[in-house]
């Protein structure tokens, strides 16, 4: 089935069909997706509140399946993790995102789109050679490491000791790390004392999703105090309305991401906005 999804495209959503069969098929096809050049990257702005000025972008992976059309990453990333092909795909994402970041850095210098956030999966992070691979990609692409932010999930860090070690080592080497989807895992706030990170991404369910009721608002307000105390930055995800942005700013948030400020778009659109001072 095709269902209207988070983006402008029609998503193929395996959840609506014969799940096991579809999953097996997608897993097979995914192994070929890289070779067949079916993967591509979009970039979503991360902005300052209240100005809406862009301070960075998050890199979001897309898969255009030859028959099914666009498959949502919420569907194919978990499959790629299960089969292990995420390690190879993740390497491709990192390499291509860094190459793009380097191009922006050279072309636009200070006006470049700021920090480039890249999602790193649990499997990738726990791979023995991951840190060395990051270093290799950094030196080959020439991207400045201070321009990158690696997004990892709490479950990733909790699942494997190796992942935790990788986070520590990346930060020692001057890379910045964000804890993604914060609040959705089983972890407690004490995780942040064990795994120091630079940025907390407060999950969209507390901002605009089903949990964005009174309890969501309380969580959102407490987390900002917490991050301030730990000298971390907080990014509110999934900001869709002016009202949400106003409330977040009032609660102390200075960074946000969401459809209100911009959807994920191809690099060329980010580039066009850079060249148009009115849009910057
Ligand atoms: P995520 O890392 O939490 O990424 C944010 C998701 O929220 C993106 O979904 C984005 O399009 C969506 N989003 C942004 N603003 C809004 C908003 O205002 N409202 C709503 N409802 N949604 C918004 P997307 O692109 O479908 O990605 C889904 C997930 O797939 C990501 O969640 C991430 O966990 C995973 N993913 C995407 N790209 C990669 C990648 O390169 N590597 C890995 N390992 N995972 C990825
Ligand atoms: Ca993310
Ligand atoms: Ca997130
Ligand atoms: Ca997510």
TrEMBL record:
Domain EAL: 23-278
Domain of life where this protein originates: Bacteria
The protein, known as: Bifunctional diguanylate cyclase/phosphodiesterase
The organism of origin for this protein: Paractinoplanes aksuensis
Upper taxonomic lineage: Bacteria, Bacillati, Actinomycetota, Actinomycetes, Micromonosporales
Parent-protein residues present: 477 to 756 of 756
């Amino acid at each position: 089935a095709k269902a209207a999804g988070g983006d402008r495209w029609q998503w193929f959503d395996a959840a609506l069909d014969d799940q096991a069969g579809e999953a097996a098929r997608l897993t097979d096809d995914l192994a070929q997706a890289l070779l067949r050049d079916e993967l591509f990257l979009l970039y979503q702005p991360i902005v300052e509140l209240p100005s809406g000025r862009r301070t960075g972008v998050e890199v979001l992976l897309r898969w255009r399946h030859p028959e099914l059309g666009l498959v949502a990453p919420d569907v194919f990333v978990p499959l790629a993790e299960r089969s292990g092909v995420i390690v190879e795909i993740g390497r491709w994402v990192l390499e291509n995102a860094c190459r793009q970041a380097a191009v922006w850095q050279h072309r636009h210098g200070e006006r470049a789109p700021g920090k480039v956030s890249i999602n790193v999966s649990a499997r990738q992070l726990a791979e023995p050679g991951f840190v060395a691979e990051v270093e290799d990609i950094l030196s080959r692409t020439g991207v400045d490491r201070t321009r990158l932010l690696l997004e990892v999930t709490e479950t990733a860090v909790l699942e494997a000791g190796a992942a935790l070690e990788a986070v520590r080592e990346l930060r020692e080497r001057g890379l910045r790390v964000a804890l993604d989807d914060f609040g959705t895992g089983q972890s407690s706030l004490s995780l942040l004392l064990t795994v120091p990170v630079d940025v907390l991404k407060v999950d969209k369910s507390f901002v605009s999703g089903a949990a964005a009721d009174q309890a969501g608002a309380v969580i959102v307000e407490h987390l900002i105090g917490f991050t301030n105390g730990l000298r971390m930055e907080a990014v509110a995800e999934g900001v869709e309305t002016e009202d949400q942005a106003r409330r977040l700013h009032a609660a102390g948030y200075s960074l946000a991401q969401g459809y209100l400020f911009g959807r994920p778009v191809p690099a060329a659109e980010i580039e066009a906005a850079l060249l148009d001072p009115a849009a910057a």
